[in-house]
Amino acid sequence: MVSHRNHPLRQHARILAASLVGTAVEFYDFYIYATASALVIGPLFFPAQSPAARTLLAFMTFGLAFVARPVGAIAFGHFGDKVGRKSTLVASLMLMGGSTLLIAFLPTYAMAGPLAPALLCLLRFGQGFGLGGEWGGASLLAVENAPRGWEARFGAAPQLGAPLGFLAANGLFLILTLVLPAPAFAAWGWRIPFLASSLLVGLGLWVRLKIGETAAFRAALDKAPPPRVPVGELLTRYPGAVVAGTAGVVACFAIFYLATTFALSFATTKLGYSMQAFLGVQLVANFALAVGIALAGYWADRRNPSRVLATGAALTILVGLVFGSGLASGSLLVVLLTLAVSLLVMGLAYGPLGAWLPTLYPVGVRYTGISIAFNMGGIIGGALAPFAASWLALVGGVAFVGLFLTVAGALTLCGVLLAPRQHA
């Protein structure tokens, strides 16, 4: 029996904290923009367009960061596989956090004309570029230091950063909308969450600078030098793993951004809910995501990550059949239940990724491999989600919105079932 003093979670507390905090910052940074894009970005940066066009343009700037993520994945993956996980993680966090902070100081269209949306898009690209190297490094920091049999639970630590980051972002927006009049929030209040990100980034850097390199990376360097061009070796020797890994990520992104960004925009514009009421609903539903991730990590260590991920994908297919109708029901209780169930299922599709994706690639190209797969999956499942959902709602009604989840779940299930042999 493992004593309390020698318990793996206690022994590796600093490593787990470093992976958790960094991912919490990642999701905080990304979700404050997602929330702002649903509430204020359109009118402030694209005022000359129609309301529907403003919403679509705001979501397009949201999706731009997803396009930048694979570029960042290749760049940071290159150095993560050649130089090491720790230093690469520090650099990615600084770029991502710096871009987020600068958004707080952007002029609006009324102040700077077309320059305002151009600068917004530039900083969104910087956010996505930095984020491209964040999740992969945080996951490897946990999994490559995990004791045998604890890989999935350690891999779930950075995943828990998602509900924590969401909680911080959503909670801060809720407080601001409660204490500030609507004109003040639109004029300057929306900038406060972007300013506050500097505190979280500072905390993340402080924790990460105190840790060392992962055991698996050190061992790989002792055996052989790293590849000259990790992405070249990855795409030449392991293309099937890249495709399978990308597909395996789609479902979790699709659920998250439909249950958060799209749902917030739809509920506050079409259903007539106040921002405060619906942010509160999402805040409560967020706890289901944390439960799903924790359950997935424990279950994956008892069985295996691929089985848990396949279960999450299959349930995503089913959730997609009722998501749109539940969201459009008009009942706050039904909407809350819809979002909670969706985020619980997301936890089952998201929680095992930290342990499953690294098994698809050898250590020498692992940072690049999981970063590219995760961020390419993010483009399909995340960047397209709010945009596709808005379009589906316009042409077919809200009931059709969930079909995007059904397709996403099917893609992830195919990725898990067709994944190549696993690496230790």
TrEMBL record:
Q: What lineage is this protein's organism placed in?
A: Bacteria, Pseudomonadati, Pseudomonadota, Alphaproteobacteria, Sphingomonadales
Q: Tell me where in or outside the cell this protein is found.
A: Cell membrane
Q: Name one GO cellular component term.
A: plasma membrane
Q: Which chain regions cross the lipid bilayer? A: 12-36, 56-77, 89-110, 122-143, 164-186, 192-209, 238-259, 279-300, 307-326, 332-353, 365-385, 391-419
Give the organism, scientific name.
Novosphingobium nitrogenifigens DSM 19370
| InterPro entries, per database record | MFS_dom, MFS_sugar_transport-like, MFS_trans_sf
Q: Recall the GO molecular function terms of this protein's record.
A: transmembrane transporter activity
Primary place of residence? membrane
Gene3D superfamilies membership: MFS general substrate transporter like domains
Entry protein name: General substrate transporter
Pinpoint the Major facilitator superfamily (MFS) profile domain residues.
15-424
